[in-house]
Specification:
The chain is 6% helix and 38% strand. By secondary structure, the protein is mainly beta. The protein has one domain (6-114): ADP-ribosylation fold (Alpha-Beta Barrel), CATH 3.20.170. It has a 4-stranded antiparallel β-sheet. A 3-stranded antiparallel β-sheet has the order 3-8-7, with no helix packed on it. It has a two-stranded antiparallel ribbon with strand order 4-5. The N and C termini lie far apart (32 Å).
């Protein structure tokens, strides 16, 4: 389940939302990439992920979006296993492992308020 590219894996499952939440509903999207979750917190219609590399090594990842709402960044605050998440079937990210769907409600912890 941890087939997220290493340069996009920040070690936790994140969720960004313009809503104040305590629990994430089943069927919601999570990611291991914090900057992607931060972008989605602003409810954008468009998100662009750009990777800069020197051959085989990714040096930097930037995320741009057109969201304008203030938002919240959350981390999933409980253990997850193979029955809790599955890859997003319609992910626009190459490889399809950046976005995951929750299979059950998950407890969240607020990490940051985003302006």
């Amino acid at each position: 389940m941890r087939d997220v590219p290493s340069h996009l894996d920040d070690g936790d499952w994140f969720h960004g939302s313009p809503l104040e939440l305590g629990t994430l509903a089943a069927g919601s999207t999570v990611t291991r990439c914090r900057v992607v979750a931060e972008a989605f917190a602003h409810k954008p219609a468009r998100v662009n992920i750009q990777e800069y590399s020197n051959g085989d090594t990714v040096l930097r990842v930037t995320v741009t979006h057109n969201g304008t709402l203030p938002g919240f960044l959350y981390v999933v605050d409980e253990a997850t296993g193979g029955c809790d998440l599955h890859p997003h079937p319609h992910s626009s990210y190459p490889g399809g492992t950046l976005e995951w769907i929750t299979d059950r409600p998950l407890r969240l912890r607020l990490v940051a308020r985003l302006g």
